[in-house]
Specification:
The protein is mainly β and 126 residues long. 6% of the residues lie in helices and 46% in strands. It is built from 1 helix and 9 strands. The chain has one helix at 64-70; strands at residues 9-15, 20-21, 32-42, 48-55, 71-77, 82-85, 98-100, 105-110, 115-124. Strands 1, 3, 6, 7 and 9 form a 5-stranded antiparallel β-sheet that branches. The longest helix has 7 residues, at 64-70. The radius of gyration is 14 Å and the shape is globular.
Length: 126
Amino acid sequence: MGVKNYDLKTVTKVISTVNTGLSLGAVPTGMKRWVTFVRVDNVYGGENKLFLISNTTETAASTITLASARAKDRITLQAKEHFANPPQGPASPDFPLFFIAAAKYLTAKTNRGSVNLFLQYFDGGD
C-alpha cells in the first residue's frame, strides 16, 4: 500500500444512536484520513452495531439506512462485548484499516445503544 505516517492521533468518544461527529474536522485537501486502529466497548445491554461513516458534513447520516450506505466499517457487537481491530492492539501505520477522502468527515452511529469508541488515525497522502 505504501502509506506510512508516524504522526498518529487518537480520539475517544461515546457514540449512540444519534449520528456523532468525532470533532476532527474535514479531511484536508489533497489528503486522506487513514484509520489504523479501532477499539469499541459496547455498554448497551444487547446486540449493537457501530457504523463508522464517511459524510459530507459532520452529522449527515440521520438514519440507519444512510449510515449503512455510507459506512466505511460496520462492527456488530454482543451485549457488553469489547472489540479491537487489529486484535493485538494499536496497529502500525503501514497497514491502515480504511480511509476517509479529502473534504469528508468521519462520523459514527449505532443502531441501538451507546458504545465507547477509541480510534487511532493520521492524515496523509496516498
